[in-house]
Amino acid sequence: MYKFLLDLSLILISTKLLGLLTRKFHLPQVVGALLAGLFLGPAFLNIITETSFIQHSAEIGVIVLMFCAGMGTDVKELKECGKASFVIALLGVAVPLAGGFGVAYFFNRAGMIDSDASSTILLQNIFIGVILTATSVSITVETLKELGKLKTRSGNAILGAAIIDDIIGIVCLTVVSSFADDSVKISWVLLKILGFFVFSGLGGWLFYQFFRRWCNTGRAMQRYTIVAFVYCLLMAFAAENFFGVADITGAFIAGVIISMTQREELLASKFDVLSYLYLSPIFFASIGLQVTMPAMSGAIIAFALSLTIVAVLSKVIGCGFGAKLCGYKNYQCKRIGVGMISRGEVALIVASKGAALGLIGSAFLGPVILVVVVTTIITPVLLKWTFRGGPQAPIEIKEHHLADKHEDIAAIRSGEK
Amino acid sequence: MYKFLLDLSLILISTKLLGLLTRKFHLPQVVGALLAGLFLGPAFLNIITETSFIQHSAEIGVIVLMFCAGMGTDVKELKECGKASFVIALLGVAVPLAGGFGVAYFFNRAGMIDSDASSTILLQNIFIGVILTATSVSITVETLKELGKLKTRSGNAILGAAIIDDIIGIVCLTVVSSFADDSVKISWVLLKILGFFVFSGLGGWLFYQFFRRWCNTGRAMQRYTIVAFVYCLLMAFAAENFFGVADITGAFIAGVIISMTQREELLASKFDVLSYLYLSPIFFASIGLQVTMPAMSGAIIAFALSLTIVAVLSKVIGCGFGAKLCGYKNYQCKRIGVGMISRGEVALIVASKGAALGLIGSAFLGPVILVVVVTTIITPVLLKWTFRGGPQAPIEIKEHHLADKHEDIAAIRSGEK
């Protein structure tokens, strides 16, 4: 009866411990949190099984994560990067989508991989392509910050493209998810998606007007936070229930709307606590909990390795080519392509969403986790390497200009150069 | 499938709205939150039914509430008030315990009230007495703060007594809960309770030593908060699972241990967010959700009214008499007695605990809510009135001494006195 208390404490402590361990190796804590779920679940120790409490809490966890991602979106910055970022993002979605579909088309045939998915093989294969599309903004930004290269031209292009990329990825997810229910006509599905964007645009505008004025009247934060949370939950519910759109899409849009009000930073700090202290450990662990070990053998291992290789190459090629089209220099194209490799929360979110809808079999969750882990490990390493090559041209160094010069002089003096 | 999102948003918005409404009438927001659950549940609108998700989240909510109450306990202050507070608390527990038992003994007979409780009638009646014992520290403190009388001699006595009162109440709850399982010998039950206090004393000492030193080594708050939360959850789990003690007792003790480290304020601020933004609305609403309307008729209404009257009188008499024994003046005894009337979270926690264990029928939850609502409404009103009567002796005014004098002079000058 009280086992859920033990489960929760195990999830909290193990995600944190493994998260800190992975951070020691300069990897994001997400990787550790995923591994924690994998260890606790049926794949290894089999201590915790998923209950409806864990399931629902994890769902709210991912809603809050996407809400926070929405609040972190800088709408102005998005407009500035403009065309270049859009082209990079579009090709950075198209190539991995095709690549993922190709790998899945080769492996996902009768007898090769046991699939408990309920949708058609074609839809399953497309969905695996969709999983490969999303770049993790947070991991990219963290890496660039660590390198001190966030404010370079390449850095800006990566940032803008990663944001647009996320949005395109979510639209793809929505479209593909809608097809999962094949009793529905395609035109009706597209109409509902359009309806959702009209609804969230109008509703968002009204909420924005109300919320911005209301926030200006007082200083009591508690009620603002709760109203923002309720708005996020209702948008998530409305998206799923009335429009057949993913609940996380609703939550993300709610976050974007909040980001345009002035209170966004204070609100984000509250949801940050709710997220790290309770909800997101449950979410990340719950993904690992769904992976079963018997599924990780034979064809699935070959599939996992191929998917990982395609995931890395398709982003580098897609985004690099996109950058080239927009007139970036070769060394910049390399940086942009490598900077977009890392998949993160979003790929996991999309995959777990698909498993819940029957779009992919649970056997495919293991490979997706491998993709996320490998791409997250490889990005900082490769990115460091690309920034070592290529000229340190003044175009590349904007804000760190003087500091770099100073360092150069110091290096020359100490005889290093 | 996604109804839990709608449920959650309804719970959050309605507890907050009704909470703000009750605050408009100078009542604690707890009252509003309770009413919200009552409206949403089967008693009125019947929109939300309790799921295992709500149940588990509510349980974690009350654990966090008691953990916070533990963190708020000032161990030093408790030692200073000492003997007087202890006598007041002891009589303030004994008289309501006897009073509640008496009322229950009169009403809780075959045919008068439908009871779905599984324990013996005697144990049920004792348990109703136990529910009446706990004074709500937070409500008392809020009221005294509003009146500016927290630092008076009466104020200190009330504060100390309320804290001790809570602890005695929890011990009573533990003892009575243990008896619910009548296959177990009484000596064994008492031994287990003793074992729990030894365990939590030793474990608490070890954790305190570790946590205090560890916290001094760095400034990263996130991991401290998570470790504190895990400690709280494990104490709650161990209490229930190994010692047959209420989980909230374990959480409360964990909070007291944390309160002795230096990081308690920062930690409390994090758990405060988790609590108000997510967990405690679910907890308070879930209590209201358990109340069914058909049970609120005939004998149960008479019982509810009697229980409320006894709840008010027994505290005033018990605590007032205790204060008299300790040499307080008559007007001070009146203040102390009235200040201890309010029941709050703790009474609700104890009652919902009892319902879950089968110690009281769910029919009794309505009356308990009435007791909480009435005592919380009546306390600030009566307390204001007692502070109007009686001399404004210098012993009664410590910190506000100069300010009061200044006000008096101003009043004389303006011709009001």
Strand element count of chain A: 0
Specify the CATH architecture of chain A: Up-down Bundle
Largest sheet of chain A: none
The CA-CA distance between the termini of chain A, in Å, is: 67 Å
What's the CATH first level of chain A? Mainly Alpha
The share of residues in helices of chain A is over 70%
Poorly predicted regions of chain A are: 393-417
Compute the CA-based radius of gyration of chain A: 22 Å
Q: Helix count of chain A, per DSSP?
A: 16
Order of helices and strands of chain A: HHHHHHHHHHHHHHHH
Oligomer: homodimer
Shape of chain A: globular
Number of domains of chain A: 1
The CATH topology of chain A corresponds to: Na+/H+ antiporter like fold
Interface with most residues: A-B, 41 and 41 residues
Structural class of chain A: mainly alpha
